[in-house]
Design brief:
- The protein has 417 residues and is α+β, with helices and mostly antiparallel strands.
- It has a domain of 233 residues: DD-peptidase/beta-lactamase superfamily (Beta-lactamase, 3-Layer(aba) Sandwich), CATH 3.40.710.10.
- It contains 10 helices and 20 strands.
- A 9-stranded mixed beta sheet has the order 2-1-4-3-19-18-17-16-15, with helices on both faces.
C-alpha cells in the first residue's frame, strides 16, 4: 500500500495517509526495511521503560525520503498517565547546534564571512585572547586567533564552565557564562575578559562555541537569533513546533524533563507548567536552547540528507552540506574526546559529529553517517549511504547511552536492500 506509515499511539498501531506539507510515508518493506526486524526497536524501548530508565520516547525512521517507522512509547510525564503523543515537544538541548550552524552557513553562502576569518573581525570583544597554562593565573599568547571554522568544529579554545572542571571552567561559572542573566551580547563581552582553555585549532573541546556563533549571526544579520532562525530555517522548512518558547496553546504536548534518581526512580526536574521554556529568556542559547518535535527535526535532517533542499525549498547549497558533514578536525585533534572519553572512529564536521572512513571490503550502511545528541538523551543520525534518517527523543538526564547503543545496530540490521 502507498503512503502508509506505522504509528503507535497508546500501544496501538495505526495507518495514516500523509498530509500535504508532510514528509511522504511508506510501509517499511516499500523502502527496503524489514518490519519484523524493526519490532526489535519496540522491544528495546519497552525494556528501557520497564527498567524506569525513561518515562517515554518517540522513534522516527525515514528512508529514501519517506517516514517508514514512527512509534511512541510510555508517558509524557512520569507523574501523569497521559500517553506520549506523536507530536510531543521535547527540549533538544545540543541538537540545537546543527541548526544554529546551518543558520550561520546561510550567511556564509551570502558572502558575509569566510570560514577561516578570525571571529574577532566581527566580534571585536574577542580580539587578543590569551591562553591559560593551567598554572595559577599564568597565560600565554594565542598562536593564532580562533576562526569561525573553529567555532563550528569546537576547536576554538573555549570551554563550557563545569563546576568541577579546569581553572577556566571555574572562571566561567563565577562570571555566569551560559547562565540566564546574560544576553548573548553580554556573554561575548564577558568571554572577552577571560582566557582560553586551549590554543585555538589544536584540540576538540566541547564548549560554548555555538552560542558565540549565535551572537555572530545576530551581528551579521541584524536580527536576534530567535527571529533569524524563524525567518530563515523554521518557516522555510515548515518546522512549526520548533523554537525557544513553548506557547500556552502547545503546553499540553510539552514533555516533562526527568532526572534518574536512586533505586531507578525518575524525578521530574522541569515540569511543563512551571518550565522556563514558557517565556522568552534573556539568554537564547544557540548551542542548546531549542525545543522541537520528531516531525520537525526529521524535516531538518531530510533537508541535509537531500543536499540542502526539501520539497522544493533550497536552504543550503549541496557543496555547503558536504563541507558541513565531512570531518573538519586536524589529525592532532584525533581521536576526538568527549567529557574525557575517546570516541574512536568519530570526527567532527561543522555542527555535527561524523563517522570517519574505514577500510572495508563490504559495503557499510553507516558510511558517511553524521549526527549529534542532546543532554536529555535525545539524538539523531543521518546515514547518506543508506538514505536514512533516525531520530530518538526522550527527556532523561544525565545522558543515557544505553538505548542509543542498542538501537543503532538494530536499525541498521533492518536494512534489506
Amino acid at each position: 500500500m502507498k503512503n502508509l506509515v506505522f504509528v503507535a499511539l497508546c500501544g496501538c498501531v495505526l495507518l495514516g495517509a500523509a498530509r500535504a506539507g508532510e514528509l511522504p510515508q511508506a510501509a517499511p518493506k516499500d523502502v527496503g526495511l524489514s518490519a519484523a526486524k524493526l519490532e526489535r526497536v519496540k522491544n528495546l524501548v519497552q525494556s528501557a521503560l520497564d527498567k524506569n530508565q525513561t518515562a517515554g520516547a518517540i522513534v522516527l525512521i525515514a528512508r529514501q525520503g519517506k517516514v517508514a517507522y514512527l512509534q511512541t512509547f510510555g508517558r509524557l510525564n512520569a507523574r501523569a498517565d497521559k500517553p506520549m503523543p506523536q507530536d510531543a515537544i521535547f527540549r533538544i538541548h545540543s541538537m540545537t547546534k546543527p541548526i544554529t550552524t546551518a543558520a550561520a552557513l546561510l550567511l556564509y553562502e551570502e558572502g558575509k564571512f569566510k570560514l577561516d576569518d578570525p571571529v574577532s573581525t566581527y566580534l571585536p570583544e574577542l580580539k587578543g585572547l590569551r591562553v591559560h597554562t593551567g598554572k595559577g593565573d599564568e597565560t600565554v599568547e594565542a598562536k593564532h586567533e580562533m576562526t569561525i571554522r573553529d567555532l563550528m568544529r569546537h576547536t576554538s579554545g573555549l570551554t563550557y564552565g563545569m563546576p568541577n572542571g579546569t581553572a577556566v571552567d571555574k572562571m566561567y561559572v563565577a562570571k555566569g557564562i551560559d547562565g540566564p542573566d546574560l544576553s548573548l551580547a553580554e556573554m561575548v563581552t564577558t568571554l572577552g575578559k577571560l582566557p582560553l582553555q586551549d590554543q585555538p585549532g589544536t584540540r576538540f573541546h566541547y564548549s560554548i562555541s555555538t552560542d558565540v556563533l549565535a551572537r555572530l549571526i545576530e551581528v551579521l544579520s541584524g536580527k536576534p537569533i530567535d527571529e533569524f532562525l524563524q525567518d530563515r530555517i523554521f518557516r522555510p522548512l515548515d518546522m512549526r513546533d520548533t523554537g525557544f518558547v513553548v506557547p500556552d496553546d502547545k503546553l499540553s504536548r510539552f514533555a516533562a524533563s526527568h532526572r534518574s534518581g536512586a533505586k531507578g526512580v525518575l524525578n521530574v526536574v522541569d515540569d511543563p507548567a512551571t518550565s522556563r521554556y514558557r517565556t522568552r529568556r534573556k539568554y537564547l542559547s544557540g548551542g542548546g536552547g531549542l525545543v522541537s518535535t520528531a516531525r520537525d527535526y526529521a524535516r531538518f535532517c531530510q533537508m541535509l540528507l537531500n543536499g540542502g533542499e526539501l520539497q522544493g525549498v533550497r536552504l543550503l547549497r549541496s557543496q555547503t552540506v558536504k563541507e558541513m558533514t565531512r570531518n573538519q578536525l586536524p589529525i592532532e585533534a584525533l581521536p576526538m574526546r568527549l567529557s574525557g572519553f575517546p570516541l574512536p572512529g568519530t570526527g567532527f564536521g561543522l555542527g555535527v559529529s561524523v563517522r570517519l572512513d574505514t577500510k572495508s571490503s563490504t559495503p557499510d550502511p553507516a558510511a558517511g553517517e553524521f549526527g549529534w545528541n542532546g543532554a536529555a538523551s535525545t539524538y539523531f543520525w543521518v546515514a547518506p549511504n543508506s538514505k536514512m534518517v533516525v531520530i530518538v527523543l526522550q527527556q532523561v538526564q544525565p545522558y543515557n547511552f544505553a538505548l542509543q547503543m542498542a538501537l543503532q545496530p538494530t536499525i541498521y540490521a533492518a536494512i534489506e536492500r
